[in-house]
């Protein structure tokens, strides 16, 4: 019931070969005390975060240093936990969460390159075995594309699902498919299956640009029987009641982008406008939530499908980790500063788990 701040960590990706050949300058410097310094013409600013991972940080270092392992343990204990990656298109969000884009069932990624998702799945199953917990695990996988919520696991072409609200569940997606799993291989297959159906396109800044926001949720139900009462007084109905239910939600946000720089037109331009509009709504909600509780006005979660689905994670009863991803290139300076200011505001947001 105590207020807790959103945990915000920063990851700085390396300069790409294209940026190096082009002669882009590195304008971002990671310091050792969880701060990052941006220096360029007319810009000299320092930002502090819970942790900063520079270009040399491994996927394992990001998993351990971000607090992801603790988030998995809290989800098993019955909390609603969320991790989301935010940043400019091409800044490394999907790589941080999932690892290399080229992986498939026949060509899996090298263990050292696996992202936060796969490492969390392994940690979840390992914790379940070590605790001797009788956990029922299931997964759902959705994308928000052009303000439509679509199921990435249901058979057939993705179709729009209605988004509802109730007093008990807050905002929820009606008729979404939940798939049970018991092994690391099974959940890894579900992740790949859904990711391959997600909308992506190529443009000037990113050959594999995500054109939708994706939300993969692991539902964790503890089936352990309560022994608080003598066995003869426990009815069959009560003995079947779950003692804890937690969730672990991974949100891969589509990257913010400037249409002029990406060279997008037609359908790509429409997608970019919808992406930017939903990210603007998210930023507006975060700005209002960052104010002291006594000074907050109405939080406009209903402004987009994305903010509705993240309402509980941002301002409700969940525990949230934000991974902000940036490019160190001088060419991306404007978007990098925008992401850093955005992430700094998010650090002031509090929830009551």
Blueprint of the fold:
Blueprint lengths: L3 E2 L1 E6 L4 H6 L5 E3 L4 E6 L2 E6 L2 E3 L5 H8 L1 H9 L3 E8 L5 H6 L17 H16 L3 E11 L2 E4 L8 E2 L1 E4 L3 E4 L5 E3 L2 H14 L2 E4 L2 E5 L2 E10 L13 H4 L4 E9 L6 H4 L4 H23 L15 H5 L1 H5 L3 E8 L6 H14 L3 E2 L2
Parallel strand pairs: 2-6, 2-18, 7-17, 7-18
Antiparallel strand pairs: 1-19, 3-4, 4-5, 8-9, 8-13, 8-16, 9-10, 11-12, 14-15, 16-17
Helix pairs in contact: 3-5
Keywords: ATP-binding, Cytoplasm, Cytoskeleton, Microtubule, Motor protein, Nucleotide-binding
InterPro entries: Kinesin-like_fam (IPR027640), Kinesin_motor_CS (IPR019821), Kinesin_motor_dom (IPR001752), Kinesin_motor_dom_sf (IPR036961), P-loop_NTPase (IPR027417)
Protein name: Kinesin-like protein
What is the structure about, briefly put?
With 353 residues, the chain is of the alpha+beta class. Helices cover 32% and strands 28% of the residues.
Low-confidence stretches: 225-242
- CATH superfamily descriptor: Kinesin motor domain
Per the principal axes of the C-alpha atoms, what is the gross shape?
globular
CATH architecture: 3-Layer(aba) Sandwich
Question: How many strands, what sense, and barrel or not for the largest sheet?
Answer: 10 strands, mixed
The average pLDDT value, as a whole number, equals 85
Percent helix range = 25-40%
Rg over CA atoms: 21 Å
Report the CATH C-level class.
Alpha Beta
- End-to-end Cα distance: 6 Å
By DSSP, the count of extended strands is 19
Helix vs. strand class: alpha+beta
Per DSSP, what share of the residues sits in E-state strands of 2 or more residues? 25-35%
Total tally of structural domains: 1
Determine the CATH topology. Answer: Kinesin
User: What is the oligomer described by this structure?
Assistant: single chain
- The helix count comes to 12
């Amino acid at each position: 019931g105590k207020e807790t701040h959103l945990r915000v960590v920063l990851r700085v990706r390396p300069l790409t070969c294209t940026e190096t050949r082009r002669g882009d300058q590195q304008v971002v410097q990671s310091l050792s005390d969880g701060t990052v310094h941006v220096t360029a013409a007319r810009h000299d600013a320092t930002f502090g975060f819970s942790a900063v991972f520079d270009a040399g940080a491994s996927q394992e270092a990001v998993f351990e240093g971000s607090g992801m392992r603790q988030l998995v343990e809290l989800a098993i204990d019955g909390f609603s936990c969320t991790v989301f990656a935010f940043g400019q298109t091409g800044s490394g969000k999907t790589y941080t969460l999932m690892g290399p884009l080229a992986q498939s069932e026949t060509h899996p990624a090298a263990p050292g390159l696996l992202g936060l998702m796969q490492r969390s799945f392994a940690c979840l199953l390992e914790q379940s075995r070590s605790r001797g917990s009788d956990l029922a695990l299931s997964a759902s996988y959705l994308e928000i594309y052009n303000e439509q919520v679509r199921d990435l696991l249901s058979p057939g072409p993705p179709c729009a699902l209605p988004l509802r609200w109730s007093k008990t569940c807050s905002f929820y997606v009606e008729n979404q498919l939940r798939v049970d799993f018991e092994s690391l291989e099974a959940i890894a297959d579900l992740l790949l299956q859904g990711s391959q159906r997600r909308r992506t396109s190529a443009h000037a800044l990113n050959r594999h640009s995500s054109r939708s926001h994706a939300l993969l949720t692991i539902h964790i139900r503890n089936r352990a029987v309560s022994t608080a009462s003598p066995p003869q007084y426990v009815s069959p109905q009560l003995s079947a009641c779950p003692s804890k239910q937690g969730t672990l939600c991974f949100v891969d946000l589509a990257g913010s982008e400037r249409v002029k720089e990406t060279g997008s037109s037609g359908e790509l331009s429409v997608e970019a406008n919808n992406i930017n509009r939903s990210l603007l709504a998210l930023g507006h909600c975060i700005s209002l939530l960052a104010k002291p509780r006594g000074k907050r006005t109405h939080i406009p979660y209903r402004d987009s499908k994305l903010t509705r689905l993240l309402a509980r994670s941002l301002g409700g009863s969940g525990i949230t980790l934000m991974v902000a991803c940036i490019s160190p290139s001088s060419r991306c300076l404007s978007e990098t500063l925008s992401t850093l200011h955005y992430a700094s505001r998010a650090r002031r947001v509090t929830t009551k788990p």
